[in-house]
Amino acid sequence: MYNEPRPPSSMDNEEELRRLRMTVDEQEKTVVALKREVATCKEELGALKECLTSKGVLDEVRFLVHLHRRRFAAACLTHGLTIHARLDTVIDVRAIAFTAGQCAGPTAMRSLREASKGLNPASTDILAKLSPGYVYVCGGFEGTLALSSSERYEPVEHSWEAVPPMAEARQYTCAGVVDGKIYVCGGWGGPQPVSTVERLDPVSGIWEGMPPMLVARWGAAAGVVDGRLHICGGLDESRQPLSSVERLELVKNEDGAPTAIWEPVPVMAERRGWPAAGVLGGLLYVCGGRDEQREPLSSAERLNTAGTIWEVLPSMAEQRAGAAAGGAAGRFYVCGGAFGAQMLSSAERFDPKAHAWETLPSMASRRAYVAAAAVSGRLHVFGGNDGVQCLATAEQFDPATGAWTPLITMSERRSGAAATVLRS
Fold this sequence. Notes:
By secondary structure, this protein is of the alpha+beta class. It has helices at 10-54, 60-79, 87-90, 93-104, 106-115, 120-130; strands at residues 133-138, 150-154, 159-163, 174-178, 181-185, 197-201, 206-210, 221-225, 228-232, 245-252, 258-265, 276-280, 283-287, 300-303, 310-313, 324-328, 331-335, 338-339, 342-343, 347-351, 356-360, 371-375, 378-382, 394-398, 403-407, 418-423.
């Protein structure tokens, strides 16, 4: 017998409505809780990004670039989009990139190079014309403690940017660039000199430990010749000056990966603690420093092209220990340093063709244990000690004008820091 369905009573409707309201209330509570958790996550993520950015661990532009790439790749996968053509195969982007680069500046071009694989070759070519690279200044001494912090200087935009700190605090250290990586070697790490070496990958911003030097030394000088980093002189744990030299070379092992190897180089003609060194015309120059009697030296020498013999050069006009040096515009420049307790502001340069030294105008400040780097055809000097305090100031010498001009100050006062140039 067929029974017609009973229409719901008003009581049934009210019960169903009550259950629905309870369900909606529970869902609203869940949504509110989830919104609260999302807001907390956003707040914590923002604070984390600020901390990482302020410490130089996270580059905000690079972070946004990688985030964009992930989102674009996910969208392509979802919608089945496949792009085989590249922008630089469709239009000539170099002329456009150069015009954009002149207006936007080197920093924007570096971001473009990171963001676009298609524009990367053009961006790299244009960037080489717009900017010679960065000067990295690492470690040093700020008046009370050795520093692990690092920063880099952009010589076209005249700006400083924080770099992730080293794993080890170092003063009276030295540095050089090999195969696009920054190597910081030795120095005074606390109770004694160290032989430890660490390397910065400027792309990832990560420091990693490398094989130690053959000798623990501090107050040494460095120069890169033929892709090999040379560490010259310095002081041992007894504060005695060294004449020994060693160099780091990257050798490919069986699987093709490069391995860092330290090997000895013929000793210098003199023992030199706190010498100045630089490279000019593919030759390594070393000058000044102090001898076993703690007397500052005026002597100079350079390593021949075969890397087997040190050639004695004419002496400088002044005796200097803890000076800064670098090769620029066909001359080898030396400035600052200490003569006993007197900090020097004087500067001079060696002309290889004339085989003679020439006195230059003095720097604006007295600077000993100062870092230097030659870039854009000019000599840049950073920090040092003026006899009263460690300095954060910097200045540059332009051979074209024959004058020193001030640069924007560093974020920290640094004496006994290391400086090196990473080309774009």
